[in-house]
C-alpha cells in the first residue's frame, strides 16, 4: 500500500535534477558547498577489473561506468560473475587487477571504513540468529560513521523513506522477506552512501515488493548498481544495463538497445521477443526455448 | 512505474526523506515514545541488576555457619577501607568476625562475582564472533587446556600457588593451538574456529583423563574432580584482584567495541561492507576473550553454563545490541554466580558441591522459563 502510493508520486512528481539531495546521501557535497551541477562527482567507473579464485578467472577484465544518480542493472546468466564483480567493487574481495573509481576517487585503495561511508551494499538474503529490533538493524548503517545522539533519528528517517516507519520496534525475525529487504535498504541509506550496490535484492520477493523495491531505489537518486536476475525488471527500472557473460561484458547501454533478441540469444541461450509495455512504454521480453 | 519510453523516467530524488508515512495516521510520536521506553527499560534493568549485585554481595557474606549481620559486612568493609577513621563507625567488630568477613567470605563472594561477570561477557562476545548460539567461553579449548595444566600441578604436587598459573598457561597454549589450527590465510572462519576448538578440547580432555588414570589416587582425585567441575573454595584477595582487574580492563575494552560487535549480526560480509576489518577484529577480540576466560579459569576452574546461558537470557530481555547486552550480562552473571556459589557451599554443609553442578541446576530451569515466556509473548 504504502509503497505503491509513493511509487506513483515519484513518477508524476516534478523532475528536478538540481533539487536538494536526500538528507544524508549527499551531505558531503553540501558541507563542501559544492553540489556538482552535473552530478559527476558520484559517477562510478570500473576499469579492467579481474578477479580469480584458485586459478579460475571469474571476472575477466570488466569495465563499466554508471552515471551519477542513475540505476544501472548488472545482468547475466548464473555464474557470469555478477556477484563477484559487486563484491570486488564493494571491497569485500581484492581484485587481481583493475581500478574502481567513485567520483574520481580510487575506491579500492581507500581505508575500509572510509569506503563504507561512501558505498553501501544490500545483499540478496541475510540471516541472523540474534533477536534484533528493526531499528537496531537500521542503526548498523551508522557503524562506519562517528556515533552521535542523532543516530536513532537518522535510522527512523531512513525507515520512513522506505515506508517501514511503523515497524521500528518490531523483532527482525517477525518480518516478511519483502519487509526485511526494505529494512536493509534503510540500513544502507543511513550509511549515507554515494554508491549503492544491490546483489539480487528482489530474490524471493513477490511481484509487488520487487517493483516497489526497485522503484524506491530509483527514487533515492543515489548512484546504484544492481545485479538482477529478472530481465523484465531491469528493462522497467534501469537507466542503463550491463550484460555479463562468462566474466566479460557482453553488451552495455540503454535497456531498449541492449535487451534485444540477438544479445539474449547469445548470452542466455533462449529465443526472445521484445514488446513494448503499453502502460509504461518500457520493453517487455517474452522468452521461448531455442529450437 | 515509469511513463516514458525514451528518456529515463523522472526521479523524485529530493523527496525521499520528506515522504510522510503513507497511511497518514501514524506520525513520529508513538514510535519515539516506544523507543524511549525501550531505552529506559534497558537502563532500568542495568540499574536494577547493579542494585541486586550489591544486595547479593552483602547477603551472601552474611550466610554461613558463623552468624554475621548485613551491617557487620559493611562495618568490616568500612574499617578496612579506612572509613572508620572518619568517625563513621563506633562499634568495631571482633577480630574473629572481622576475619571471617574480610579474609574468608568477602574474597570468595567477590571472586564469584568477578568470575560470573567474566564468563557472561566472554560468552556474549564468543557467540557473536563465531555466529554460533552454542558458543561459550570455553569453546576454544580454553577450559580443557587449563585442566591439563591444573591436573598436572595437582597430581605432580607442585605448590598450590602454582595452580592458577599452570591453568592460565594451559588455557593459553590450548588457545594458540586452536587459532593455529583454525587459521586459513590469515582468516578465522567461524565454523572452522569452532571445529578447531572442539578438536583441541578433545585432545586436552584425553590428556587430562590419561594423567588422572595413570597417577591420581584418593585425595588428589577428589581435588581434581572439584577443580574440573569448578570451585571457588579458598578464594583469596589475590584471586579477587586477578579476576576483577581482568573484568574491568578487558570488559571495558570489549564494551568500547560494542558497535563493531553489533555489525557482525548479519555475518562477515555485511560487517565488512560496514567498514569493519573482519579478520583483525576477530583475532583481537578472540584473544581478549581468551585472556579474560583464562583469568576466570585460573581462579575457579571450569564452571560451565554461565557463559552459555546468561547472554542468551539477557538478549531475550533487552535485545541483541551489545551496548546493552555486555553490561547487563556482566551484572547478571555476577549475581548469578554469587548465589550459585552460596548454595554450593551451604546446601550440604560441611561438604561443598562443585559450583558447576549448581550453575547447571539453577540456570537450566531459569532459561527454560525465559524461553517459553518469550515464545508465548510473540
TrEMBL record, chain A:
GO terms of molecular function: ATP binding; ATP hydrolysis activity
Chain spans, region Disordered: 1-41
InterPro entries for this protein: AAA+_ATPase, ABC_transporter-like_ATP-bd, P-loop_NTPase
Annotated Polar residues bias: 1-13
Domain of life: Bacteria
GTP-binding is among the record's keywords: no
PROSITE patterns tied to this protein: ABC_TRANSPORTER_2 (PS50893)
Domain ABC transporter: 44-271
Key words of the record: ATP-binding, Nucleotide-binding, Transport
Biased composition (Basic and acidic residues): 24-41
Keyword Ubl conjugation: no
Record PANTHER family: ABC TRANSPORTER ATP-BINDING PROTEIN, HEMIN IMPORT ATP-BINDING PROTEIN HMUV
Name of this chain's protein: ATP-binding cassette domain-containing protein
Species the sequence originates in: Phytoactinopolyspora halotolerans
Amino acid at each position: 500500500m504504502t509503497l505503491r502510493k509513493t511509487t506513483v508520486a515519484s513518477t508524476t512528481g516534478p523532475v528536478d535534477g538540481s533539487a536538494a539531495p536526500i538528507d544524508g546521501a549527499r551531505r558531503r557535497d553540501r558541507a563542501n558547498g559544492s553540489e556538482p551541477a552535473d552530478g559527476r562527482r558520484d559517477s562510478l567507473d570500473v576499469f579492467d577489473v579481474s578477479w580469480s579464485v584458485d586459478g579460475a578467472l571469474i571476472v575477466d577484465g570488466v569495465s563499466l561506468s554508471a552515471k551519477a544518480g542513475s540505476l544501472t542493472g548488472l545482468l547475466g546468466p548464473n555464474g557470469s560473475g555478477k556477484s563477484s564483480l559487486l563484491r570486488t567493487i564493494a571491497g569485500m574481495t581484492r581484485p587481481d587487477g583493475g581500478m574502481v573509481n567513485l567520483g574520481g576517487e580510487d575506491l579500492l585503495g581507500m581505508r575500509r571504513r572510509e569506503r563504507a561511508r561512501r558505498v553501501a551494499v544490500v545483499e540478496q538474503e541475510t540471516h541472523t540468529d540474534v533477536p534484533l529490533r528493526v531499528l537496531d538493524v537500521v542503526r548498523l548503517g551508522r557503524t562506519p560513521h562517528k556515533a552521535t545522539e542523532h543516530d536513532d533519528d537518522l535510522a527512523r528517517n531512513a525507515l520512513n523513506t522506505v515506508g517501514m516507519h511503523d515497524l521500528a520496534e518490531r523483532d527482525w525475525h517477525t518480518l516478511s522477506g519483502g519487509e526485511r529487504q526494505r529494512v536493509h535498504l534503510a540500513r544502507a541509506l543511513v550509511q549515507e552512501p554515494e554508491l549503492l550496490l544491490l546483489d539480487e535484492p528482489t530474490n524471493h520477493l513477490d511481484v509487488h515488493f520487487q517493483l516497489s523495491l526497485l522503484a524506491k531505489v530509483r527514487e533515492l537518486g543515489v548512484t546504484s548498481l544492481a545485479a538482477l536476475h529478472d530481465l523484465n525488471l531491469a528493462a522497467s527500472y534501469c537507466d542503463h544495463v550491463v550484460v555479463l557473460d562468462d566474466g566479460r561484458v557482453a553488451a552495455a547501454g540503454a535497456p531498449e538497445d541492449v535487451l534485444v533478441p540477438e544479445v539474449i540469444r547469445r548470452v542466455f541461450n533462449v529465443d526472445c521477443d521484445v514488446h513494448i509495455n503499453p502502460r509504461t512504454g518500457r520493453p517487455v521480453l517474452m522468452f521461448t526455448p531455442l529450437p | 512505474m515509469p511513463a516514458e519510453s525514451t528518456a529515463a523516467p523522472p526521479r523524485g530524488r529530493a523527496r525521499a526523506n520528506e515522504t510522510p508515512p503513507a497511511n497518514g495516521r501514524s506520525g513520529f510520536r508513538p514510535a519515539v515514545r516506544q523507543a524511549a521506553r525501550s531505552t529506559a527499560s534497558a537502563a532500568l534493568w542495568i540499574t536494577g541488576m547493579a542494585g541486586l549485585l550489591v544486595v547479593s554481595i552483602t547477603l551472601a557474606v552474611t550466610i554461613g555457619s558463623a552468624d554475621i549481620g548485613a551491617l557487620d559486612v559493611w562495618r568490616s568493609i568500612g574499617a578496612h577501607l579506612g572509613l572508620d577513621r572518619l568517625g563513621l563507625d563506633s562499634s568495631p567488630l571482633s577480630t574473629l568476625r572481622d576475619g571471617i568477613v574480610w579474609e574468608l567470605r568477602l574474597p570468595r563472594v567477590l571472586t564469584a562475582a568477578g568470575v560470573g561477570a567474566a564468563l557472561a561477557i566472554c560468552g556474549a562476545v564468543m557467540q557473536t564472533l563465531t555466529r554460533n548460539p552454542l558458543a561459550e567461553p570455553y569453546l576454544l579449548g580454553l577450559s580443557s587446556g587449563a585442566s591439563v595444566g591444573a591436573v598436572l600441578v595437582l597430581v605432580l604436587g607442585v605448590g598450590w600457588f602454582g595452580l592458577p598459573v599452570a591453568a592460565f598457561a594451559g588455557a593459553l597454549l590450548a588457545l594458540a593451538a586452536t587459532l593455529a589450527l583454525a587459521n586459513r590465510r590469515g582468516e578465522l572462519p567461524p565454523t572452522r574456529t569452532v571445529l578447531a576448538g572442539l578438536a583441541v578440547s578433545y585432545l586436552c580432555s584425553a590428556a587430562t583423563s590419561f594423567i588422572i588414570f595413570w597417577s591420581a589416587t584418593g585425595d588428589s582425585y577428589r581435588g581434581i574432580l572439584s577443580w574440573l567441575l569448578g570451585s571457588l573454595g579458598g578464594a583469596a584477595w589475590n584471586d579477587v584482584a586477578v579476576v576483577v582487574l581482568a573484568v574491568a580492563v578487558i570488559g571495558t575494552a570489549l564494551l568500547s567495541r560494542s558497535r563493531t560487535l553489533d555489525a557482525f549480526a548479519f555475518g562477515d560480509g555485511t560487517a565488512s561492507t560496514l567498514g569493519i576489518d573482519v579478520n583483525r577484529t576477530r583475532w583481537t577480540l578472540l584473544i581478549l576473550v581468551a585472556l579474560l576466560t583464562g583469568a576466570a579459569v585460573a581462579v575457579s576452574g571450569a564452571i560451565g553454563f554461565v557463559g552459555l546461558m546468561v547472554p542468551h537470557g539477557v538478549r531475550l530481555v533487552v535485545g541483541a545490541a551489545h551496548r546493552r547486552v555486555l553490561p547487563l550480562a556482566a551484572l547478571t552473571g555476577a549475581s548469578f554466580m554469587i548465589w550459585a556459589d552460596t548454595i554450593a557451599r551451604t546446601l550440604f554443609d560441611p561438604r561443598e558441591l562443585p559450583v558447576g553442578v549448581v550453575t547447571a541446576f539453577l540456570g537450566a530451569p531459569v532459561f527454560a522459563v525465559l524461553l517459553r515466556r518469550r515464545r508465548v509473548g510473540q
